[in-house]
Write a structure and sequence with these properties.
With 138 residues, the protein is α+β, with helices and mostly antiparallel strands. It has a single domain, classed as STM4215-like, CATH 3.30.2000.10. The strands form two sheets. Strands 2, 3, 4, 5, 6 and 7 form a six-stranded mixed beta sheet that branches. A hairpin with a 3-residue loop joins strand 4 and strand 5. Helix 1 packs across helix 2. The radius of gyration is 16 Å and the shape is elongated. 29% of the residues are buried.
């Protein structure tokens, strides 16, 4: 029988990582799953949304390779692209830890406009490799 393991939440791991790293370069910007309630392009700081787009690859029981989408929400296209590019660069430069063993590029910066808020957005995707954790019997 293979060992019983669980994989960390790659989305939450990236929120925690980018909150810390982005805070050094862009204090006051927000990072989270989804967009904060009441966020609007004219009245808020830019926001970095983190979304888990699935886990197409896995090497059970050791690692999982999750696709993570980073979406920068801002007041103009230039700022959205800049924030998305900065987030991608910070993620790709990260050397890893006990939870995240590596981050690789998938798609580059893709600008767009949110039809509901009319906010300028730009997204990138990365592959986040997370290490398993053993499940201990109680």
């Amino acid at each position: 029988m293979k060992p019983l393991v669980m994989f960390p939440d790659a989305e939450r791991a990236m929120v925690n990582l980018l909150t810390t790293l982005l805070g050094v370069y862009e204090p006051g910007y927000t990072v989270g799953v989804g967009v904060p309630d009441g966020w609007s392009p004219g009245s808020s700081y830019p926001h970095l949304q983190v979304a888990w787009d699935g886990t197409p690859l896995q090497a059970y029981p050791v690692v999982q390779h999750a696709t993570i989408r980073l979406v920068a929400w801002a007041y103009d296209t230039t700022e959205a692209k800049r924030l998305a590019s900065l987030a991608e660069g910070l993620a790709l430069a990260y050397e890893g830890d006990a939870e995240i063993s590596g981050i690789r590029p998938l798609t580059g910066v893709l600008p767009a406009q949110d039809p509901d808020t009319r906010a300028e957005i730009a997204s990138v995707t990365v592959r986040v490799t997370v290490r398993s954790e053993p499940v201990l019997a109680s």
